[in-house]
Write a structure and sequence with these properties.
The chain is an alpha/beta fold. It is built from 13 helices and 16 strands.
């Protein structure tokens, strides 16, 4: 039994079964035993691999996307460049290297990284030290300075905790984590929740018995959208999920690149749930931002020129290197098991920014 499971069992004994969001938050972010607080989970030796680790082109294209946004914004200086959940710093490192082709943009950058993991913060310091650009770390959005910004969130929203609600014959009930036969187990709160049917999109009503909906606190996204609506700029969110709100239990655990039981050894596996991009768009629009997309990641990256960039990099390379580059591009842009369709890109921007690269065919 992990130390975090002992802690969770004690909470259940004293407070009763926990909402799924609280369980997920503890499993990922407990300051002593949470998943992200205690390890570097990325790459072949970790539990999963993200797009920046698959190909340097991903981060380079995002860098050029940011440079074009800066131009469309009227080239403000300084420009707050914010990354939420920067991982190992790989995306930012590739972005800053690509930014060298636009020296004025690079000179205008004021880089801020929002990270809660001390392990990953240290890894980011090492990765980004060669960039020579001053960097600032934040535990949350509230300490970001004012001013126009461009924000990036790659595989960030999927790790924000979700609540799960289940439809039964007598209404909607919250799914909770409790104990059964001496083990952590999912169950339903016996008291039905009123008013849930009314907040569902009309196309999902009436909902069938057994339906599951997931809701997450999108306050971090709302905070960024509000800043953008007031001070100018844009945000780019890339993650996996569905374009329109839908029913489904998508909570999953990944450990050593394999799916695991979400209730087994909390703190030792990554927990995520699919992103509802319709809910994400609504959260940004409520703060006064203009939404662009979502579009499939494969389409987005092709519009940014991923294939042309790959051909340029392959020039003069050995066959093995060319094959590795092609494999990375296929994984980023292709259908399942690739990321090109399940992963999507969505941007929200100040209303003065009408056309964003990658979102117009």
């Amino acid at each position: 039994m992990t130390p975090l499971e002992q802690q969770i069992r004690q909470l259940i004994e004293t407070e009763g079964p926990l909402p799924v969001s609280r369980y997920m938050g503890l499993a990922l972010s407990d300051p002593r035993h949470g998943y992200y607080a205690t390890r570097d989970p990325f790459g072949a030796g970790g539990d999963f691999t993200t797009a920046p680790e698959m190909s340097q082109i991903f981060g380079e294209l995002i860098g050029l996307w940011c440079a074009e946004l800066w131009r469309l914004m009227g080239e403000p200086s300084p420009l707050r460049l914010v990354e939420l959940g920067p991982g190992r710093g790989t995306l930012m490192a590739d972005l800053l290297r690509a930014a060298k082709v636009v020296p004025a943009f690079r000179a205008a950058l004021d880089v801020h990284l929002v990270e809660t993991s001390p392990v990953l913060t240290e890894r980011q310091r090492v990765t980004l030290a060669p960039s020579g650009i001053p960097l600032h770390w934040h535990a949350g959005m509230e300490t970001l300075p004012a001013g126009p910004l461009v924000a990036l969130a790659n595989e960030f929203v999927d790790a924000l905790p979700v609540d799960q609600l289940v439809k039964t014959e007598d209404g909607w009930h919250e799914r909770r984590v409790g104990m059964k036969n001496g083990r952590l187990a999912f169950g339903l709160d016996p008291a039905p929740l009123p008013g849930i049917e009314k907040i569902l999109p009309a196309r999902l009503r009436p909902s069938p018995s057994g339906a599951v909906i997931e809701r997450r606190d999108l306050m971090p996204v709302g905070d960024i959208a509000r800043r953008i609506a007031i001070h100018g700029g844009a945000a780019l969110v890339i993650d996996y999920g569905y374009a329109r709100s839908a029913f489904g239990d998508t909570l999953q655990a990944v450990r050593a690149h394999r799916f695991a039981d979400p209730l087994d050894s909390p703190g030792e596996a990554d927990l995520t749930a699919h992103v509802d991009f319709e809910a994400l768009a609504t959260a940004a629009e409520k703060q006064g931002a203009e939404v662009h997309g979502p579009v499939a990641q494969g389409i987005f990256l092709r519009r940014l020129g991923i294939e042309l960039r790959a051909e340029k990099i392959k020039l003069g390379k050995e066959a093995e290197t060319r094959a590795a580059i092609d494999a990375g591009i296929a994984r980023l842009t292709g259908p399942a098991p690739g990321m090109g369709e399940l992963f999507k890109a969505l941007a929200f921007a100040h209303r003065d920014l009408r056309a964003l690269p990658g979102f117009d065919s």
